[in-house]
Write a structure and sequence with these properties.
This protein has a single domain, classed as 3-Layer(aba) Sandwich (Rossmann fold), CATH 3.40.50.300. The protein has 7 helices and 10 strands. Helix 3 crosses helix 4, helix 3 runs parallel beside helix 5 and helix 4 packs across helix 5.
Length: about 240
Amino acid sequence: MAAILETRNLRKTYRKGSVPIPVLNGVSLEVGEGEFLSIVGRSGSGTPTILNLIGGLDTPTDGSILARGTDISGLGRKGLALHRRRTVGMVFQSFNLIPSRTALENVTLALTFGEHPLRDRRRRAVEILSSVGLGQRLDHKPGELSGGEAQRVAIARALANGPEILLADEPTGNLDSATSDEIVSLLRGLNRDRGLTVIMVTHEEPMAREVSHRTLRLLDGKLVGEERLREFGGAG
């Protein structure tokens, strides 16, 4: 398995006043290129924190995060911004769309932070939204979309700049079961058909087992279990 991402002895401690609050306690893992990896854990286990660290939204207290061999934990603000622009795309439970912008505008705005010429941004945004089934909803604002449609816009936005790794933080947490199945199927299709590496954190272990090549279990900031579910790179 060729590792596209690796963490080594990753630790994160927050402080509440003078009291240290450890959240991650020495997490080491590898993610293969083209793998669908799910990290499962209940609330308080540290799953959102590890995704934020991998995504460059936060920095570790100790340890390292290697993306294509580059240790992003030592990067400054500009380096982390480039990492978020070129290497990772993030999908959040709460969608994090701009409410005053249409679906098309939300995705086009993401493209302004990339290296796409101005004349190509609208065309690319239309293509990406159409690829996730929203070709007829381009001019609708988030408040005019269903939860599943809003999450599809968020996925399209995350794909806008062609990331190598898609990070999904509880992507079905605000959705009903039928819509959750649709979103998870979309993520699985991106992994299967495009070879996109997907790292998903979730409380829903049965759902994770259905779509992942491998699951890791996080408890109290430590990895406590691993399950290999399908042949990596196979049809499953």
